[in-house]
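Marked as duplicate of an earlier ticket. Keeping the data here for the record.
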Amino acid sequence: MAQRLALGQLRVQKVRHGDGRCSYTIFDSASSLHSGADWYLSKYAGTGSDRTYAYLLIDHLRWLEPEGLTPETVTFRSLKRYMGAVGAKISMPYGAPWRVGKQPYQNAALRGAAACLKGFYRC
């Protein structure tokens, strides 16, 4: 049984397992797993970090589309631009504002996002 938590093309879902455990993962619009995200998040299943990392990762994955990027085409420069778009102080232009109407990430969230992306891309 899965509970839908976010709307849009990509969404975070809470998954209840047969043994009572819960974990979080990312699904695409066709209700199929986002394989890269699921692989990464499965390492954190049941730790409490999977939910946090799922929401940090989905924000990044949603940012990729308007930038014309995919997880396979992301560069270190792209990651720096993304971090600037969510609130990090960077010395380069980062493009269009991201998360319009929301506050920039504070230091703790920026550290979490950087750790999540580092693990996801295995930098």
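See parent ticket for discussion. Residues 1-7 have pLDDT under 50 and may be disordered.
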